[in-house]
């Protein structure tokens, strides 16, 4: 049995009926499951978490992209979150019995179909990128929908699939394979935003911090606290515990305690076992020692026999 | 889909072919799986970890008990570990879609069959116990095989199932339902056994410590260290992190550091998530946020449809 995860982002966070229609394109299929979905009216964006069979996943994502193209018109879209397409980004993440290389292949297969059949330009990103300057999603998305009508003419930004013209209402889309992304927030016992800003700067890659950490400072007015809000783009190489302990130490410097933390959405087992193993100082331990995970391996194998 | 775990203990830790014949009684069945097994020649004892369908589990455990009766003769058994039966103890542990009450029922169903068909006296223990003095396995086992020929005549120790006479070669057996048991060892950076002894005394229930902790001090001569070796009999109520932090603090009192820890065998997901959640100071988190666990729930549900 092979299982991949995908977390497509759609540029609609206000009209729930539209989001539900897009999700219905996934729900109608056997072999994949909607684990979670959320919409944010300020960002005017929705995020759906899917897991399941790789082939079914490609078909479902194609249908969702088609439905989003039909229902979302980016010419009238406003929201805080940067965006370039009705379907903005489609990542593939290996979960069970699937390699990163297979996920790259899946992203190319889906990208090709979207480009050829829906006439939406497709950019392969992260591990699927066809050039180094296309690895980072933020670099691809720069200029957003409105800017892409010029950007696409630059040979550096010729799409990987589809026409060399922006789709007039659905824009362009990024498709790629990547590691799990963990949204990890650390709440600090102070209302001084500058403390969170200094700490975010200390841990994020771009300003000299950990290689796989993106971090910003956020004010939590309701709670009278500030937050270091992070995307952990490779929990294996920049683990949660190490980043948290660095934040704790840096905060101490300002006499500020870590009050609590949050993980948004789903998290892979390995990331949590790594945390437990670190703090327990556990020798010789791994996810194969977790009963539920062994049971999953067994059921996945049994299922594969059918 | 319903899944239980069982970890039967057999009084044979030297003749591998005997242990393998017993295990073969489980392996021949569909719907249960042997996760792990180990034999200890000093203890002259083997431990098998099984998971799977409750009904199949009862049948398999009956066959294993019958095979152990045929192949093991306790009159000639010597080993460091106390024992009272060829099959010494059979616990049922709820894993998925099964309640503790159902596990109590399973233990009674198996106990009845062992008593009636194999003529081996059966004592229900832990959550299945029919009287408070029979809850603790160590209390039942006191006197061991040799002492049971007298002990069984005491009305206090009349078996729950089977004859009122010890089986001449297979002894008696304890069967019951219980929570997961986690074998958790903490290694200390000293060779002073008295430090481990004082700390074991501080954390174990019997001498005033945590309600669900059994602890002894062990010398690790090869490593030049000492160890607090524990059975955590309810990780939900006496959690690993709390006991470890108490040990760490008590060891500090003697200028001794915690060097490392070990978990022996399998561990339930919840126990490790509790650890990660404590040390990360994670608000609002649970095992349903772990992707692999969600996938297991889905596959178990799909399987149940067949």
Automatic annotation (TrEMBL), chains A, B:
<dbReference type="GO" id="GO:0030409">
    <property type="term" value="F:glutamate formimidoyltransferase activity"/>
</dbReference>
<keyword id="KW-0369">Histidine metabolism</keyword>
<dbReference type="InterPro" id="IPR022384">
    <property type="entry name" value="FormiminoTrfase_cat_dom_sf"/>
</dbReference>
<dbReference type="Pfam" id="PF07837">
    <property type="entry name" value="FTCD_N"/>
</dbReference>
<protein>
    <recommendedName>
        <fullName>glutamate formimidoyltransferase</fullName>
        <ecNumber>2.1.2.5</ecNumber>
    </recommendedName>
</protein>
<dbReference type="GO" id="GO:0005737">
    <property type="term" value="C:cytoplasm"/>
</dbReference>
<dbReference type="InterPro" id="IPR012886">
    <property type="entry name" value="Formiminotransferase_N"/>
</dbReference>
<keyword id="KW-0808">Transferase</keyword>
<dbReference type="InterPro" id="IPR004227">
    <property type="entry name" value="Formiminotransferase_cat"/>
</dbReference>
<keyword id="KW-0290">Folate-binding</keyword>
<dbReference type="GO" id="GO:0019557">
    <property type="term" value="P:L-histidine catabolic process to glutamate and formate"/>
</dbReference>
<dbReference type="InterPro" id="IPR037064">
    <property type="entry name" value="Formiminotransferase_N_sf"/>
</dbReference>
<comment type="pathway">
    <text>Amino-acid degradation; L-histidine degradation into L-glutamate; L-glutamate from N-formimidoyl-L-glutamate (transferase route): step 1/1.</text>
</comment>
<dbReference type="GO" id="GO:0019556">
    <property type="term" value="P:L-histidine catabolic process to glutamate and formamide"/>
</dbReference>
<feature type="domain" description="Formiminotransferase C-terminal subdomain">
    <location>
        <begin position="180"/>
        <end position="294"/>
    </location>
</feature>
<dbReference type="GO" id="GO:0005542">
    <property type="term" value="F:folic acid binding"/>
</dbReference>
<dbReference type="InterPro" id="IPR051623">
    <property type="entry name" value="FTCD"/>
</dbReference>
<keyword id="KW-0963">Cytoplasm</keyword>
<dbReference type="InterPro" id="IPR037070">
    <property type="entry name" value="Formiminotransferase_C_sf"/>
</dbReference>
<dbReference type="Pfam" id="PF02971">
    <property type="entry name" value="FTCD"/>
</dbReference>
<dbReference type="InterPro" id="IPR013802">
    <property type="entry name" value="Formiminotransferase_C"/>
</dbReference>
<feature type="domain" description="Formiminotransferase N-terminal subdomain">
    <location>
        <begin position="2"/>
        <end position="179"/>
    </location>
</feature>
């Amino acid at each position: 049995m092979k299982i991949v995860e995908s977390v497509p982002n759609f540029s609609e966070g206000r009209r729930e009926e539209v989001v539900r229609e897009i999700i219905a394109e996934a729900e109608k299929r056997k072999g994949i499951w909607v684990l979670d979905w959320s919409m944010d009216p300020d960002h005017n964006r929705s995020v759906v978490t899917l897991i399941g069979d790789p082939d079914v996943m490609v078909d479902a994502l194609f249908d969702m992209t088609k439905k989003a193209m039909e229902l979302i018109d980016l010419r009238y879209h406003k929201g805080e979150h940067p965006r370039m397409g009705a379907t903005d980004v489609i990542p593939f993440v290996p979960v069970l019995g699937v390699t990163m290389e297979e996920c790259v292949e899946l992203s190319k297969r889906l990208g090709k179909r979207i480009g050829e059949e829906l006439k939406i330009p497709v950019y392969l990103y992260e591990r699927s990128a066809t050039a180094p300057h296309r690895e980072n999603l933020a670099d691809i998305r720069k200029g957003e929908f409105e800017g892409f009508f010029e950007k696409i003419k630059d040979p550096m930004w010729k799409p990987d699939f589809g026409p060399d013209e922006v789709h007039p209402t659905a824009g362009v889309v990024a498709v790629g394979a990547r590691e799990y992304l963990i949204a990890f927030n650390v709440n600090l016992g102070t209302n001084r935003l500058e403390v969170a800003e200094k700490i975010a700067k200390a841990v994020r890659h771009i300003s000299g911090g950990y290689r796989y950490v993106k971090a910003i400072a956020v004010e939590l007015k309701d709670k009278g606290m500030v937050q270091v809000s992070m995307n952990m783009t490779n929990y294996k190489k920049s683990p949660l515990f190490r980043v948290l302990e660095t934040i704790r130490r840096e905060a101490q410097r300002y006499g500020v305690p870590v009050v609590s933390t949050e993980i948004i959405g789903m998290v892979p087992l390995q990331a949590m076992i790594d945390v437990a193993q670190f703090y327990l100082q556990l020798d010789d331990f791994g996810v194969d020692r977790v009963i539920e995970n062994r049971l999953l391996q067994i059921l996945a194998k049994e299922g594969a026999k059918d």
